[in-house]
Amino acid sequence: MTTCVSRLLVLGLFVVALFISNASIVEARIRHYKWEVKYEFKSPDCFKKLAITINGRSPGPTIQAQQGDTIIVELKNSLLTENVAIHWHGIRQRGTPWFDGTEGVTQCPIVPEETFKYQFVVDRPGTYLYHAHYGMQREAGLQGMIRVALPDGQSEPFAYDYDRSIILSDWYHKSTYEQATGLSSLNFTWVGEPQSLLIHGKGKFDCSKLTTPSLEADACNETKPECSPYVMTVIPGKTYRLRIGSLTALSALSFQIEGHNMTIVEADGHYVEPIVVQNLFIYSGETYSVLIKTDQNPSTNYWIKSDIVSRNTTTPSGLPTPSGLAVLNYYPNHPKKSPSTIPPLGYRWNDNVSRLAQSLSIKARNGHNRHPPLTSDRVIVLLNTQNTINGQRRWSVNNYSFTLPHTPYLIALKHNLTDQFDQKPPPDGYDFVNYDIYKTQENTNAISSDGIYRLKFNTTVDIILQNANSMVNKTSETHPWHLHGHDFWVLGYGSGKFDIYHDPKKYNLVNPIEKNTVAVQPYGWTALRFRADNPGVWAFHCHIESHFYMGMGVVFEEGIDRVGKLPNSIMGCGASKNFIKT
What we know:
This protein is mainly beta and 582 residues long. The chain has helices at 2-27, 176-184, 352-361, 409-414, 545-549, and strands at 30-42, 49-54, 63-66, 70-77, 86-89, 115-121, 126-132, 143-149, 162-171, 196-199, 231-234, 239-246, 252-257, 262-267, 270-277, 280-282, 287-293, 302-309, 324-330, 378-389, 392-397, 400-402, 447-449, 453-455, 460-466, 479-483, 488-495, 514-515, 517-520, 524-531, 536-542, 553-558. The strands form seven sheets. A six-stranded mixed beta sheet has the order 10-9-12-17-14-15, with no helix packed on it. Strands 21-20-25-30-27-28 form a six-stranded mixed beta sheet. The longest helix has 26 residues, at 2-27.
C-alpha cells in the first residue's frame, strides 16, 4: 500500500512538473529567424534602383511575438562590399546591451559574408521597429516592424477584431553613397526632398518628371505591378487595430484614411487615453496604434494618404514630393478598384500649431501608466545647431558634433580602454541667457568629438531638447529624437527658448506619456525625464538619417560595471581585434 501511494505521489509530481514545464513553454517561446541581407533591384515607386532587402523583401518580415519571448535572428550579410548592423528600435535590451545593434556604440559592424546572431527578450507588449544602424542604410529599405502581443489569457484595454500593420517611409532615387558624399564634401550638397512617399513599401513616381533620363529604357515604368498602390482589405462592420510606424529618412508626415476617424490607443508601446482624430501626425521612429471602424459605405473603396509636413517641398530647388497613396478595400469590392473620389487634402506643411496640439493632447492611459519621479538628479539641456567645422557643414549639440569611435563604446568602457575615445564629456548646457535661437549664428567654436555623457546609475535625468535657427536664415527644422535602451516621460513642450527657472513648473507630472522617440518643433523645446537604470551604453540622436550622419547625437553610459561578459561576436574592429579568441 505504501509503495502504491509513493508511486502515485511520484507520478503526481511528474504530472505537475510536466504541466509547469509546458506552461513555461507557452508563456515564453523562442522565435527563430534566419535572414539574408542583400542588395536587389527594386521599383517601389516605379523607378528602378538598388534597395537593401531581407530575404528579398523591403520592408522586411514582421517579427511577431508575445511578451517574454526570446527573439533569435541569424543575420547573414550578403551586401558583398558593405558592412551592416540592425537596431531593434524600442526594445530596451535589458541584460543584453550588446545586441542593441548600434554600430560603433554597442557592437562592431557585421562584415560581408559574416553571419551574426542577435538574441534578446521582448519584455513588453506593443508596437516596435527594426532598421539598419550603419551609415545611412535605413533609407535604402533595410527596415521592418516588431509586434509584441500580451501573454495568453491577458487582454488589452480596448477591443478590436483584426490587427494590421503599415510602415510609412520616404524614398530617394540617389544611392546612400551619393548622398553621404554630398553631405561630407567641402562643397556641401544637401540630400533634398524625397522623390516619393511609400506606404508599406509602395508608392508612385511620375516617370515623365525624371530630371535625368536613364539610358535604361525600363528604368521608370508606371505599369509595373511592384508600384501599384498598397491595398488593405477590410470586412465591413468590424474594428481594426492599425499599427503605424514611421521609418522615414527625412520627412515628418500626416496620415489619414478617407472618411474614417482614427482613435489613438497606443504610442511607442504604451497605452494612451483614447483620442479620436481624422489626421495623425507621425515623426520618424514613432509608432502608434489606432482603431478604425469599417462603418462607411461598403460599395466603394477609400484612400489612405500620407503627406509631408514641417518641410516646404514646393521649393524651387526640386520637384515637390507627391502624396503617398494606398487603398482601403472594402470586401468584396475588387482590390484594384480605385476610389471614386479625389484624395483628401492634407494639413498645411507649416501648421506647427496643429502638430504641437496633437502632441500635447496625448496622455498616458489611466491604470496603465507609471508615474515619473517628481524631481531629477541631473538636467542636461541640448541645443541643436548647425555649424561649419573644418569647412564641412555639421549638426551639433551644445557645439559638439558627434562622431563615432573606431572601437565601440561598450567594448572600450568595459575593458577600460580610455585611449579609444575622448574622455572629456560634452557640456550639460549652453549660454541660454545670451544665445538668440531666432538668429542665424556663425557658431564658429564648434568641434567634432566622440566624448560621451557618464550618468550615475539609477539616477533620474532630465533632458531638454532646444531647437534654434539653422544656418539658413529663418529656418528651424523639426527633429525627432530617439533614445536607445529606455523609455522616457514627456513632461512638456513649448515654443521659444526654454526657461530653466520657470518652465519646469509647468511640467505634467500626473499622466505624461512614455515614449522612446519624440519631436522637438521649430524654435521650440521638449522636456524628457528618464531613469538611468539600464546598464550599458546608449545612443540618443535625431532620427533623421542625414542629421545623425552629420553629427546630431549623443551617447549615455550608465552602470557599465554591472554589464556582464561581452560576447566575442561583437568584437573585431578597432582595439577589440585583440579580444577575439582564435
